[in-house]
Amino acid sequence: MKHMTGILMGLLVATVMLAFSTGAVMAQEKAKAEKAKMAPAAEKMKGAPTVKALLENERVRVNDVRFKPGDKSKMEERPDRVVYVIKGGEYKRHYPDGKTENVKLKAGEATFIKKDTSALENVGKTETHFIGTQLK
Known about the structure:
By secondary structure, this protein is α+β, with helices and mostly antiparallel strands.
């Protein structure tokens, strides 16, 4: 009987431990899913640049941005911003009225861009990389 009680107690402890560890894993997965929902800038669509949010608050948004050759951002309104170029390249800026503008960004340069609605396309042969700071 003592042996049976010990086995039952062991099974009870194991069941309780499994329940707690399963709950902890589920809570971690839920937290990861919530974090992923909160960071849409980190999403990568085919043919779109990779954008990783580094900082965001009520006054500023800082993104780490990488464009592979052929990548094009979506057409949208962007606020005043500063871009610091880590690895430069050749771009084409597209405007809603169909006009385009050729842009060359050089490594080490910082540039200010006024609020506009546009899309940026890497028309060069290499990946480009910059840090974009948008003012809110």
